[in-house]
Structures are given as C-alpha cells and as structure tokens.
Amino acid sequence: MYQVFLFFLAQVQCILYQFNATNQYLLVQNEVEQWTQMKIQIYEHNVKQSEAIDNYEKYLQIYQNLTIGQYYELEIVIIPEANFKIQQRNQKDCPKQCSNNGDCINANCMCYESFCGSRCQFEIKSYYNIQQYNIELDQFETQYFKLQYQQSDLINEQGQTKKLIVSTNNTIDIQVYLVLPYQSTLTSIQNEYILYNKSLNEITSIDFSSFYQPFSSSSIIYTFFFIFQNYNTSKQRYLITFELKNQEITFQDFILVTILSVVAFIILLIVIFIVRRRCQYIQISRLKYSDHQQPKIDIVGQLPIISPAKDQECIICLDLLEKYQCRFTSCKHIFHDQCLNEWLQIQQTCPLCRENLFEEEAIKTMKIRNLSSSSLVAGQFSIIQSERQPIQQMILSRSMSNRLAAFQ
C-alpha cells in the first residue's frame, strides 16, 4: 500500500511517501529537459537518510536501503520539480542501463571508449589535427571532444615538445586531459593527467611536456580530451581554434640559462687556471732540478784527476785516497771522485775549507787549470815534495844526533 502526499514550494517538491517494504531498495529517479542543478534527499522522521546532488545534469537517481516487511514514512525532497519516479527494486541497477553504451558494474556505468557521462549518454567526438571547432551549448550544457595528433606533430626538430594554443570567441569553461597512446580516456582522468581546468575567454597556451612520454613510432597517436561547459546565462555559440607552436624561451628561462652559462664558464676558467698552474709548477720544478743538478755534474767532470800520495785520507769518507780515483778542487784539496760527486749533489762548498766551488771565478779557474792539468799536477807534486824534503832532512839529522848521543 502506497500513500503519496505532495508539497510544492517554488521548484521544490517535498513528497511524503508511506509504504510497506516488499523489496530491498527504494529507487527515486528524477529527469528534466534542461541542464540544471539537481538534488534528491530522503528523510525519515526528520532525519536525513541519503542524498544525491549533481550540479548540472538532466537525470538523477538514488537508492535507499529497506527492511522487507517494515512500514516506512519517508519525506522525499526533489529539486527541481520535474518528472520523477519512486519504486521498490530487488537490486541496484545502473541509471538508464548505461544508455546501451557501456557495461554496468556494481551499479556504476563503465562506458565504452567513445562514450562518457554518468549513464554513458554522451558520445565523444574525435577529430585529427583540426585548426578550429564550432559548438553550440545551452546554459550549463556539457560537451566532450577529442583532438588527436601524431607524435611527429607534437615535437620539433630538436625533439622538444610544442605548446597547444587554444583560443575562443566567448568565455567557456574547459578541462583538458592528455591521453597517452595505449591508454584509455578514463585512465587518463583517474591518473589526473589534467593540463587545464578553468575558464577560457581569449587565448591560452597549454604546456603538456610534464605528462608527455615519447614512443619509438613517430606516427603513434596522442589525444587531448576536452570537456566544454557553458556557465553563461544563455545559449552560446563558440568558435574554438587550435594551433601547435614551438615553445618560446621566457625571460625567466633566459635568465636561468644565462646564469648557468656564466657559472659553467667560471668553473671552466678555474679548471684551466689550476691545470695551467700545475703544469707550470711541474715545469719549474724540472728546470730547478736541472739547474741544480747539471752544474754540479759539470763541475765534478771539470775537476782534474790526480794520483794522491800514500797515507792520505779523504775528508768525506775518511778512507785512504789511494784506493779510488780522486779529484783535485780549485781550493787545492783532494777527495775521492765518488765522494765529491755525492757531496756536491747536496752542498756547493768544499767539504774542507767551505769555498764555493760553483762561483764564476772558481769555474773559470778550473777551466784554466784544465788546459794545463798535467803541468798543474806536476807543479803541485813538486811543491809537495819540496815541502817534504826539509822535514825529512830534519828528521834524519835528529835521528843521527840521537844515535851519536846514545853511542857516546
């Protein structure tokens, strides 16, 4: 038994619906001819049980759970006043059987690829690489549109993505999603690949580079999914144009590129400076080592070789001079050739008298003495022998006097 009482207030219908539950669900449907804001509310004893709201639609439905055999007195608010239906159902069904354009799964419509909407009532129009599109929308009406491009259309010769320029002659609300190849429109919406979502009144530039994914084939298709809505107070005609343009370098991008270039140039200069200083240091070190070593080798090579007297020691190694080859310095001292060579690798002075063996005068003296090394050596030995003869005569005379004294 059903009892229905209607209360009208402006465009609001308040229905007092009394009945015994014979099924599991109560279905309330409302359908209008114009796009409008719709609402259905169900109350029991002034307590809200359920609610369905859609801002701009032509059809709305709601299910209320029931207990079979129980008596109900429900207040049902329907906005706006329109053609409504109230009936009991054993199961939940999709609205309008998805308009035969989709599959009903858990009371929700899964629309086919070319359809969309809560009941798959909208057919999506698809176009390939068009420059303009004309539409006419009633107040609050929604329309869906696909614009397709090949991958080669979306990138320039340098492999950079272009920008999609969209313009319109009247203010219109637009949502734009990027649908990648091998991806459904629903997946793109669920993944929130949204590029634009606001009113458009003149021209806008849509950058899709953040969602763009390249594929190997240049002819593969990318899709821009548009949702147009007219929120004006009356029906409007729209001329919407599309154009792909290369991305322009903005002033901020120019500043960023300039700063990065300057920093890179400074780093390059620092690296070049460090490498150059390192090379100069190595070269100077080699020159210093060469200058430090070569004169010593030349000096030792220019010193005359002599055969020293017996029982004389090398002041450097304290070994007898006669055992090894000896050199005679400009300061008239004799050393082992090897000992002197090793000494001069560290010092520049004579081990005995500390005379600098590398001064120009000493070098000149050695060069002059090298020209007459044989006469020099002979003269030195004669001097040594002449110095030794008086000493020997003195020693002999003393020994003779000592012997005579002992004999007497």
From TrEMBL:
GO molecular function, a single term: zinc ion binding
UniProt xrefs under Pfam families: zf-RING_2
Transmembrane segments: 254-275
Domain of life: Eukaryota
InterPro entries assigned to the protein according to its UniProt record, in alphabetical order: RING-H2_zinc_finger (IPR053238), Znf_RING (IPR001841)
Limits of the RING-type domain: 314-354
Keywords from the UniProt entry: Membrane, Metal-binding, Transmembrane, Transmembrane helix, Zinc, Zinc-finger
The protein's name in its UniProt record: RING-type domain-containing protein
